[in-house]
Amino acid sequence: MKKNRKFRFPILLKVILLGVITSFVASAVSIVVNYRNTIDKATKELDESANDALEFSYDFFSSGKSGRDKNIEAFTYVSNYVTKAYINSTEMQSAELKNYPDFFAYEDVFKQAVPYFFADGMFMTLDYPDFYDYYLRVSQVLFTASFYSDQVAYYAIKDPNNPNRFIFLFDSRVSSSKGRGTYYHCPGSHYDIKSTDQIIDLGHEYIKGYKLSKYNTRFIEIKADNDEGGQDVIGYLFVEYDTSSIADNYRQFLINEIIIVSATSFAVILLYAILSYFMFVRNINRLNKAALDISSQLEENKPFVVVEPKVKSHDEMKTLSDSFIAMENQITNYVEVIKADAREKEKINADLEIASKIQLEALPDPKYDDQNTSIRAFMKPAKEVGGDFYDYFYLDENRLAIIISDVSGKGIPAALFMMKCKELTKLKLMSGLPLAEAVKEANDTLNINNEESLFVTSFIGIIDFKKEIINFVNAGHEKPYIVSKGKVIKLEGNANFVLGGITDVNYVEETRPFHKGDLIFMFTDGLNESINDKEEEFSYQRIEDTLSKSIGASLEEHLVNMQNGLAEFVGEQEPFDDVTMMIVRFNEQKLCLSYDQKDYSIIQDAVNKFELYFAYLETERTSKVGIILDEILNNLISYEQKEDLHIDINFSMVKDDLQIEIISDGNDYDPFKNNKEKYLKDYSDDIEEGGFGVTLVKELSKECKYVYKNGHAYTIIKL
Amino acid sequence: MEISIKHGNEMVIALEGRLDTLTSVTFTETVNKEEIKENLVIVDMKNLEYISSAGLRALLALKKTLAANKKELEIHNLNPVCQEVFKVTGFNNVLTVK
Question: How confident is the model at residue A380, as a pLDDT?
């Protein structure tokens, strides 16, 4: 585990983040919900204040009989005055506001056309008192409209020549003039009614709405009695207000609001985080630190020491911390237990190793040679101790018992049972009973107290070297092979019941010929039943094939070929069973070698083959044979002229003597006659180095002679 | 055959296996390659199985080379067969056997 005390997202950061996110979402929701309402409400308030302004100004306009009449007279006068002047002034008619971007330039034109007329009356001349009176009345009404609301108020008339055009005459003097209205301030300036502008019925007695392109407007019609007894509209009293800026204003307000809310939230969250730290995050960190300390202890293989997290609160963290400490204490105990277990296991392993050694030592040498027989065995337990065993021993000077067995199960119980089996079988066979009876008695004894129900399959054979036969009982075991005169024969026979299974079983003993030079190959099911990765078994067939290929080879080679064949077959598959093999040869005591090449390497080959075949001979004699072969073959190869020299070498036991015949089809040359024995008495610089070969052959052998007959040279040596 | 050579106060040639027709050639070649600075050469035959006349010839040749350079040759740890070989050829009279 990588030690990491720095977290990308520590808990405290998460607490803060959580606070920020929730407060942001909450304020965002409340803002969105309120946004529309607030704007709607503000718009409505403006609408109503416009109505109020007109109501008040109309009330003012209409207050008192004489006041009303005077006002109508004033408005009529102003309207007529301007209309008349306007109509008469060609200059004014043709003047378009757009041609007078300068507000005052336009005003100058108007002043020339309509003398004494000023928009806001600031420079109103007193030379014309009637007009001044009228003007004051009009402007008072407008003033009232402006006063009651923060609106722009206008007095306008319809262009007598163009009913789709308003001409503005006056505005209120207290206009807040927020960038609107200036355009219309100028008396005489006009507004052409566009197709998109329309009168909106507000459901009011006399207040009407006019939707000009940019602004919301309200107006009342100023009417005067005409001569026909009806009423004419002489002018319009407008109030104009802008609702588009409401959203802008409110947005600004919201930005301020958000800044304030955010700052406040942040402060609250900070407080929350600080309190969180002291109230529980600190304890989580303490617990975390303890856990990390423990893990680094384990990583660094230090002795386990209990680390107590310093949690002092009285909440869930405290119980968590207590549980943690309890767990640690338990780990301490477990560590002790595990250590003890490991020691125990180590001891058991050591015991197992000893057991395995004892078991192997109980088996006879895997290599045995005497003049009758040569034996080679191989055993590879799948576990430390196995249930397989092999055994061989002489019952008398001519009879050799050979046994191979496989105990059911593995490990110690199988090994113990195997030891019992081995000793019991040997005891019964040595007691002199006939083979079948000895096996029957061994079986009955094995069945006593066999509560584990272990059993053993066994092949028990007795080779009689004098009668040249093999007696055997096969108690449920793999069938061995006999290799005789170049043929591989499976030793089929009666399938007897296993040993240790049930008591009072009669075993059938069988006999087969077993001649000099024959060999018997025995094995356990670990060999034929070994499987490869395709779940195929090594099988009898492969054993038979391998034996066929090994004909003529030494016993060692037989076993090596079988092991290699098996290893190649199973590949990387884990061995599931013990593999045990034993091969026993009835020694012919005769070895014939034949060579067609004249090469020094045949010396080595002949010596090696001899040593393997006659391995039971004493070392000293074997060494002497090596020297003699070296001398004679060296002579033959060195001095013989014939290129395609054929050499036969026969070894045979004649009673206790080994006889070596070396036969070549070369020249008739008697080495013993033509060479003097050479013996050194003193050292001198000119001693001849060679010539000791014949001396050695003569001295090391018991008898040596040379004969030439039928075109062949015979050198015969006994030792 | 295995030949192992150690240099020191004396040069020790340890032999293992058989010193016969084939291997004595190897022996002679191997020893001839060595630069012999020591005054004493020991042939240790503790692990030698046997020696044939070809081996005796190689030892005698080595003895001659060393004697010409005023150096000594000793043969150590002969097994019974080798002892017999030395005895019947008189090599124990010619070589220092220990």
Answer: 81
Q: Do A634 and B21 touch (CB under 8 A)?
A: yes
C-alpha to C-alpha distance for A659 and A717, rounded to whole angstroms: 6
Q: Which of A603, A627, A677 to mutate to test the interface with B (most CBs of B within 10 A)?
A: A627
Which of A46, A47, A75 lies closest to A156 in space, CA to CA? Answer: A75
CB-based burial of residue A343 (10 Å sphere; 0-12 exposed, 13-18 middle, 19+ buried)?
exposed
Q: Do B57 and A604 touch (CB under 8 A)?
A: no
**What is the least distance, in Å, from the CA of B4 to any CA of chain A?**
21
For the CA atoms of A265, A266, A270, A271, the dihedral, rounded to the nearest 10 degrees, stands at -30
Two structure tokens written together for A706: 């040379």
Taking CB atoms and an 8 Å cutoff, what residues of chain B touch A685?
64, 67-68
Query: How many cross-chain Cβ pairs, A to B, lie less than 8 Å apart?
Result: 89
Average pLDDT, chain A: 83
Going by DSSP bridges, is the β-strand pair A216-225/A208-211 parallel, antiparallel, or unpaired?
antiparallel
Sign, CA dihedral A528-A530-A533-A535, equals positive
Contact B20 A679 (CB under 8 A): no
Nearest neighbour of A603 by CB, restricted to B20, B56, B84: B20
Q: Containing H/E element for A513?
A: strand A510-513
Q: Which two tokens stand for residue B70?
A: 């005023």
Smallest CA–CA distance, residue A623 to chain B, in Å, is 6
CA distance B90 to A211: 148
- Return d(Cα A542, Cα A488) in angstroms, integer: 12
The residue count for chain B: 98
Record the pTM: 0.53
Nearest C-alpha of chain A: how many angstroms from B19?
9
In the three-class reduction of DSSP (H, G, I as helix; E, B as strand; rest coil), residue A533 is classed as: coil
Q: Are A370 and A436 in contact (CB under 8 A)?
A: no
**CA distance readout (Å), A262 to A28, A247, A252, A273, A277:** 11, 22, 15, 16, 22
Give the count of beta carbons closer than 10 Å to the beta carbon of residue A167: 22
**A310-314, A455-459, A684-688: which has the minimum mean pLDDT?**
A684-688
Residue A149 pLDDT more than 70?
no
Kindly state the average pLDDT of the residues A618-641. Answer: 90
**Coil, strand or helix at A341:** helix
Residues of A in Cβ contact (< 8 Å) with B62: none
**In 3D, which of A638, A693, A636, A694 has the Cα closest to residue A666?**
A636
Q: What is the pLDDT of residues A150-208, one digit of tens each?
A: 667 778 888 877 788 888 777 765 444 444 444 445 667 777 777 777 788 888 888 88
Q: Which helix (H) or strand (E) holds A416?
A: helix A411-430
Q: What are phi and psi of B5, to 5 degrees?
A: -120, 135
Q: Which of B53, B59, B64 to mutate to test the interface with A (most CBs of A within 10 A)?
A: B53
In whole angstroms, what is the distance from residue A514 CA to residue A529 CA?
27
Strand partners, A239: A153, A218
* pLDDT tens-digit readout, A221-243: 888 888 888 888 888 888 877 77
> CA torsion angle for A188, A194, A200, A206 (degrees, to 10)?
20
Q: What percent of chain A has pLDDT over 70?
A: 88
Residue A50: in which H helix or E strand, if any?
helix A11-62
Judge whether B59 is closer than 8 Å to chain A, CB to CB: no
Interchain CB contact of B70 with A (< 8 Å): no
Q: How many CB atoms lie within 10 A of CB A209?
A: 18
Max CA pair span of chain B: 33
Residues in chain A whose beta carbon is closer than 8 A to a beta carbon of chain B? 600-601, 603-604, 607, 620, 623-624, 626-627, 630-631, 633-634, 678-683, 685, 687, 689-693, 695-696, 699-700
Contacts of A681 in chain B (CB under 8 A): 90, 93
CB contact under 8 A, A603 and B18: no
